[in-house]
Amino acid sequence: MLQRRRLIQAGAGLLTARLALPALAQSTNKIVLGQSAAFSGPASALGDQFRKGAMLLFDKVNARGGINGRSIELQSLDDGYEPDRCSANTRKFIDSGVFALFGYIGTPTSIAALPLATQAQLPFVAPFTGAEALRTPLNRYAFHVRASYFNETAEIVKQLTAVGIRRIAVFHQNDSYGKAGLDGVTRALQPLGLSPAGLGTVERNTVDVDAAVQSIMASKPDAIVQISAYRSCAAFIRAARKAGFGGTFYNVSFVGTAALAKELGADARGVVVSQVMPFPFSSLTPVAGEYLTAGKASAGDAFDPNYSSMEGYVAAKTMVEGLRRAGGKPTSDSLIAGLESMHEFNLGGFMVDFGPQKHTGSKYVDLTILTDDGRVRH
User: Which of 139, 148, 146 is nearest to 336 (CA)?
Assistant: First the structure.
């Protein structure tokens, strides 16, 4: 982990034709952002939803004349949630001259990309990950809008132990994302004199969970925290229940709440998911009201609000404000300065607090529970 962090600090398949990269990305009337994300494979819903949410905001801004007369263009490339493909995409973005990198999806992919962004001196804004390895030590080019996995797992452990549950197992992806979540749970349990009661792993982009179920069930846990993507988590939940587990499943936000609920169907009942964004299904906050209005204007009754697209919307709102503050002729340095000037900035009921020595904008965490008809309650 230390070696990876040093690398990140030192760091000194295409979707469709619409996403093809031009030889020269920037122009005097356009701000081009590059995004590598999963648009295929078992995590594709995360990339699709995040991008749709971001485009709701970018399209609205562009319709009003853009930022200082420049429109925002989001170019997205598919990495299938695989680090090597993400690295290749990032190099393409750098070679094409994008202004900044935005909305990367996942821990292993972002860990692969950030050293490249740092070396190229490109801002790396709003990755969809809460991994501490991307946040510590501070990287001048990386800005995180969401709370960390440490924040999420601390809230989960706090709720579980408050009601007397002490045997907590962890099912996690066998990569940097899963390790980040496991570290968070372990860290939260340590002051209580506890450690994970059992462990089980799954390989990224697979649903081979049988060994994990067997290992975790042998530890007789009362609750299981899951750190993986929605398909493997759904497969584990079904298999563990079939094996006789009667406790509660807890997931961190990256699982993809809507995708998990859809994957599970009626089996979603009682599954808990921690959230790092405002509730997206009603206008409880001004930013949620904006998001819902924009979604309905874009897609009408077909609009399907969810946490992942809400995160894309909030991330885009943050980027737009940073660009506004970057001035009429924005540069990497002026965007960084613009983002760092967003002290306790209210996006509409969601606060982002950046500074020169603070590039993690939020610690907001909420716990929600899924119902058997696909709804989310908090």
Answer: 139
Number of Cβ atoms within 10 Å of the Cβ of 54: 28
Domain ranges of the chain: 2-147+285-363, 149-275
Top CATH class of 149-275 equals alpha beta
**Cα 44 from Cα 239, distance rounded (Å):** 23
Q: For residue 294, how many C-alpha atoms fall within 13 Å in the half-sphere facing its CB?
A: 24
Q: What percent of the chain has pLDDT over 90?
A: 91
SS (H, E, C) 276-335: CCCCCCCCCCHHHHHHHHHHHHHHHHHCCCCHHHHHHHHHHHHHHHHHHHHCCCCCHHHH
**Could you tell me if 157 and 194 are in contact, meaning their C-beta atoms sit under 8 angstroms apart?**
no
DSSP class of residue 77? E
The predicted-structure confidence for 48-95, as pLDDT tens digits, reads as follows: 999 999 999 999 999 999 999 999 999 999 999 999 999 999 999 999
What gap in Å lies between CA 358 and CA 363, rounded to an integer?
A: 12
Q: What is the pLDDT of residue 27?
A: 57
Residue with tokens 């081979």: 208
Second CATH level (architecture) for the domain 2-147+285-363 = 3-Layer(aba) Sandwich (3.40)
Please state whether beta strands 366-370 and 272-275 pair in parallel, antiparallel, or not at all (unpaired). antiparallel
- Could you tell me if 315 and 125 are in contact, meaning their C-beta atoms sit under 8 angstroms apart? yes
Domain 2-147+285-363 matches domain 149-275 at the CATH topology level: yes
Spatial contact of 243 and 217, defined as CB atoms under 8 Å apart: yes
In terms of Cβ atoms closer than 10 Å to its own Cβ (0-12, 13-18, 19+), residue 124 is buried
Secondary-structure breakdown of the chain: helix, strand, coil percentages, each rounded to the nearest 5? 45, 20, 35
What pairing do the DSSP bridges indicate for beta strands 124-125 and 142-143? parallel
pLDDT given for residue 155 in this prediction: 98
Is the CA virtual torsion 184, 189, 190, 191 positive or negative?
positive
Pairing of strands 100-102, 124-125: parallel
Q: Which of 262, 296, 276 is nearest to 370 (CA)?
A: 262
DSSP H helical ranges for 127-256: 149-162, 176-189, 210-218, 230-242
| pTM metric for this prediction | 0.92
How far is CA 242 from each of CA 168, 214, 268, rounded to the nearest angstrom? 19, 11, 14
